[in-house]
Design goal:
single chain, alpha/beta, 12-stranded mixed sheet, 3-stranded antiparallel sheet, 19 strands, 19% strand
């Protein structure tokens, strides 16, 4: 079967609220709109994922469970941050239908290291949703994909197994050079450096992700301070078991070859120097733990002061490359992490935009009553439409435009002009989606004026 990958469907959700029936109807309609198992659409025999995974296979549903609900967050702010169970349930049900009783469906993600997995399952309604499906005989496994978790004392403990995938010189990071400058805030820079070097770019993916025959991404429709938008391609980072491998930015200011922040700043330089010292591997004694807390406090102060720190601005030319790299690994790496020339699994995407998030994403976005879901059998197409719905120009977003046209291990075979969008079943131009479905989103602070549709 030739997949209708160039199609992307946007469906409105009345009231922009997580009513189970309304959201499920919109999700199913969006999937039907792109033509998966079109001959049986709207019948009891409809099996849209059946062409993507065989009976007895494995599906990973990949939501955005970035962090549990904070005491200071109201319901709307939390809904803007994490994928909700109402959007996940129809995906899980359709995945279960495709793999049958002998198959396996997992709902998994790698939240921020200090996020509490059990809490986010409860906060999103996912635990209750899975319990209801379990009572109906459709068992689904929730799985924390993190290989390393920080506790409240900022000490680490090991969890899930990771598998190394080396993109080598094919990595989008390879052209940047200066691999010793790649950084992840609040991680040991020496360890990050061991993952990256000329002709060597290793990502540690959760084994459970590579065991999947089909990945169903289910991210939020929200902004992101390091890549502009949090959609399906950025959401692939949620399959990483060891976050030390994630090149978020390059150390220092732009004039010195970095993209951590735009220009020299003594406070940001101090925070960087402190962070590089206190996050080194080894036993975390009292002084080190106090230093880590000071580093996090300085990061917070700089952020609240409107300073671009940790690569949180539109000049970040590192993070989008890393995210697209991971999407390529998910498509072409086999179960043991060996890259093959042929795709190893299918990857589709449903964007949860019932309540979206703008401004300070991905961890503290403001709610936007965007009232829609977006589906495509091609994550690139989903992101192009999702960005357009938000009022951004996908051509100005490197994480979208840069994912197209890759010669080796391509994320997509499409160009932006190939994407065929529909709104509530009727054809629509991508650029016509801005402001038509949802209020326009406010970009993250360091991105204002850089990505908006003109």
């Amino acid at each position: 079967m030739t997949l209708p990958s160039r199609r992307v469907a946007v469906r409105r959700v009345a009231g922009a609220r997580y009513d189970d029936a309304l959201v499920a109807a919109a999700v199913r309609a969006a999937i039907a709109d792109v033509g998966l198992d079109g001959a049986n659409a709207h019948t009891d025999g409809w099996n849209p994922f059946g062409a993507l995974v065989r009976p007895g296979g494995t599906v990973l549903v990949l939501p955005n469970f970035v962090f549990h609900k904070r005491p200071s967050e109201d319901a709307a702010r939390f809904e803007a941050k994490c994928t909700q169970a109402a959007a996940l349930r129809p995906l899980v049900e359709l995945a279960r239908r495709a793999v049958g009783p002998a198959g396996l469906v997992r709902v998994g993600n790698a939240p921020v290291q200090s996020g509490v997995w059990e809490s986010v399952l409860d906060d999103t309604g996912t635990r209750a949703m899975l319990a209801a499906l379990d009572r109906e005989g459709a068992r689904v496994e929730p799985i924390d994909l993190r290989g390393w978790v920080l506790d409240r004392d900022l000490r680490g403990s090991a969890r899930a197994e990771g598998v190394s995938v080396d993109l080598g010189s094919a990595s989008l990071l390879d052209v940047l050079g200066g691999a010793d400058a790649f950084r992840v805030t609040h991680y040991d820079p020496a360890r990050t450096g061991r993952f990256h070097g000329p002709g060597r770019h290793v990502y540690r993916l959760a084994r459970a992700a590579l065991e999947a025959d089909l990945i169903v991404s289910a991210p939020k429709l929200k902004t992101h301070n390091k890549v502009g938008v949090t959609l399906a391609l950025k959401g692939c980072v949620g399959t990483i078991a060891e976050k030390d491998c994630l090149a978020h930015h390059r150390r220092g200011d732009a004039r010195r070859g970095g993209d951590e922040y735009p220009r020299a700043n003594p406070l940001l330089a101090l925070r960087t120097a402190l962070g590089e010292r206190v996050w080194r591997e080894g036993e975390a004694g009292r002084a080190t733990l106090l230093g880590r807390r000071l580093d996090m406090a300085l990061s917070f102060v700089a952020h609240r002061a409107g300073m671009a720190t940790g690569g949180s601005w539109s000049g970040n030319d590192t993070c989008w490359r890393m995210a697209v790299d991971i999407a390529r690994c998910l498509r072409f790496a086999d179960r043991e992490g060996v890259l093959r020339e042929a795709p190893q699994r299918a990857h589709v995407a449903l964007l949860d935009g019932v309540v979206g998030g703008d401004g300070d994403g991905p961890l503290a976005p403001s709610p936007v009553r965007s009232g829609c879901v977006v589906f495509s059998a091609d994550p690139f197409a989903a992101d192009a439409a999702g960005a357009s719905v938000m009022g951004f120009d996908p051509r100005r977003l490197r994480i979208v435009a840069g994912a197209s046209g890759l010669a080796r291990y391509p994320v997509t075979a499409l160009r932006l002009d190939d994407v065929a969008a529909s709104l509530d079943g009727a054809p629509v131009a991508l650029e016509a989606l801005a402001g038509r479905v949802s209020p326009r989103f406010n970009a993250a602070g360091g991105w204002r004026g850089a990505i908006e549709a003109r």
